Amino acid sequence: MQYAHPGLANPEYYVPGLPTDYVAQRYGIDPNEIAKLGSAENPYGASPMARQAVADALDRLHLYPSWTAEPLREKIAEVYGYEPNQVICGAGETEIISLIIRAFCEPGGRILMPGPCFPIYHLFAEAEGRVPVLAYEATDRQTMALDVDTYIEAITNDTRIVFITNPHSPSGTWTSEADVRRIIEAAPNALVVLDEAYVHYSETEGYIHLANEYEHVAVLRTFSKVYGLAGLRIGFGVAPANVVDALLAIKTTWNMGQLQIAGAIAALDDHAHLDRTIETIVTGRAYAQERFAELDRFRMVPDSRSNFFLIEILDPETDSTKVFNGLLERGVIVKDGSVSFRGLEKRFLRSDANFKEKMDRLVDGLADLPAGQDSP
Ligand SMILES: Cc1ncc(COP(=O)(O)O)c(C=O)c1O
Questions:
Q1: Cα(219)–Cα(2) distance, rounded to whole angstroms?
Q2: Are 197 and 220 in contact (CB under 8 A)?
């Protein structure tokens, strides 16, 4: 078999957070007793307004949707101060990330990303024969935040795409607008992609306006998180029209179905759902921080502005895989850093912020793990 490039002979795939049913069956636990804290989903479920709009759209299932998802582009343009031709919609942000990699970096070209980072950036780059450059030196090991000066040093003349994730992933830490602008201005020859998947949990408006100010900036958002529509698959990007034109040319023609378009338009007006989700996450995050003070073998990496946070293992006798498995046996699903994030190694896990009772399950589960050995 002749592949387009050798990387496809033995590809690496995304490792998602474990599903509830799998853990319930494997460990014989009632599914209702499982704390699912590994996929950063919405604890309240989908936006009720989106659910209604999706139900109403069933009557249109036999009709082809607009191939550009035009009604949704118009809505997004209106909400965020853009023109519809500056908006691209996709089956989740992940589809748009893949389109950007194909359209703005040639095979063999270099794509800069923080190390560790959201794995889709490097997995797609490799699957498309591009070269991901993970700037591990740009992660401050104490705060796990992006060190902007070091990140800027990693930008070279032949860097074609520069990813910024804000809130940062996997730490959830925040990068200021001035620092984001410094990165953008240090990369005039690249397309700078600002991934704002979790921006609502920062309780700011984010920096979506920056794609209107620079010719080489795209800002991406998703409906999978605060709108609770991870299962519907909707994301979007705003960028200069010539950037969007190229993405339209390579996307699958009808990449957005009737249900996605209808659900997303309605979700953008569901302020009540948005507000209560943000309130719950912010409260749960602060509560988890308080409760972590009780633990001496684990530390919550502070200052997350997202709906997840890192847990650092302080006990040298154990590691993230042992802790991950011990929590699973106690009905708590998190992410094993060493499996889910390239370069994070065995000292970290990532947990969602969620309802207080779920945070109790996490902290109580960690406290219950026997010191320095595999869980019983
Ligand atoms: C940093 C980051 N960006 C983008 C996404 C993409 O989400 P989706 O494809 O569901 O829109 C995720 C999902 O986990 C993420 O963590």
A1: 36
A2: yes
43 alpha carbon – ligand 1 mean position (Å): 16
CB 94 less than 6 A from any atom of ligand 1:
yes
Q: Is the CB of 118 under 6 A from ligand 1?
A: yes
157-192 pLDDT, tens digit per residue, is 999 999 999 999 999 999 999 999 999 999 999 999
Which whole-number Å values give the CA distances from 67 to 59, 63, 254, in the listed order? 18, 11, 5
Q: Does ligand 1 come within 6 angstroms of the Cβ of 352?
A: no
- Domains, in order of start, for the chain: 6-33+272-368 (3.90.1150.10), 48-270 (3.40.640.10)
> For residue 374, how far is its CA from the centre of ligand 1 (angstroms)?
32
**How far apart, in whole angstroms, are the C-alpha atoms of residue 343 and residue 341?**
6
For ligand 1, is residue 197 a contact (CB within 6 Å)?
yes
* Residues 279-336 pLDDT 10s: 999 999 999 999 999 999 999 999 999 999 999 999 999 999 999 999 999 999 999 9
> What is the CA(341)–ligand 1 centre distance, in A?
14
Give yes or no for a cis peptide into 170 (omega within 30° of 0). Answer: yes
For residue 139, the Cα-to-chain-centroid distance in whole angstroms is 17
Q: Which atom of ligand 1 is nearest to the CA of 195?
A: 3
pLDDT at 340 over 60: yes
Q: Tell me the pLDDT tens digit for each residue of 63-82.
A: 999 999 999 999 999 999 99
